[in-house]
Amino acid sequence: MTTPRVFIVRHGETEWSLNGRHTGTTELPLTANGEKRIRATGKALVGDDRLIVPSQLAHMSVQSPPAVTGSLLIFPSRYVSPRIRAQRTLELLHIGCKDKMPWQEQQQTEPLDVRTDAKIQITEDIREWDYGDYEGLTSATIREQRSKNGEGTWDIWRDGCPGGEYADAV
What we know:
alpha+beta
């Protein structure tokens, strides 16, 4: 039996990831540059002669771990974050799924290049960290606010996010 492999690809660039703002629940599209770079990543990594061979995929997942790392593409799981930026990243990698993506109303035409029968499911269980009051702020701004309030330094793992989530809940 072959040992399963896991591949991780971060979601494409958004305006907030470009300038270091924490993004959890806010829906942001990928920038044009983000889309371009994900397409290039797909061409480099996905194909019969590449690292990720679609015909060998059982399932796919776009997921978001806690804190600052953003949405990730992880194989061979079968879940996708409900965030549009994660879903768009998966589309742009051109894995070649036979079925339409779950967030698409309908498949426009028959897929031209079916390369996998892998199924994709959307789940809240792997959505982004909820930054609460810190949503859209940079770490520097958060530290500055906390200093003004006499709260000391900020460590997301220790202090969590007021109005959002804490590490022990994630």
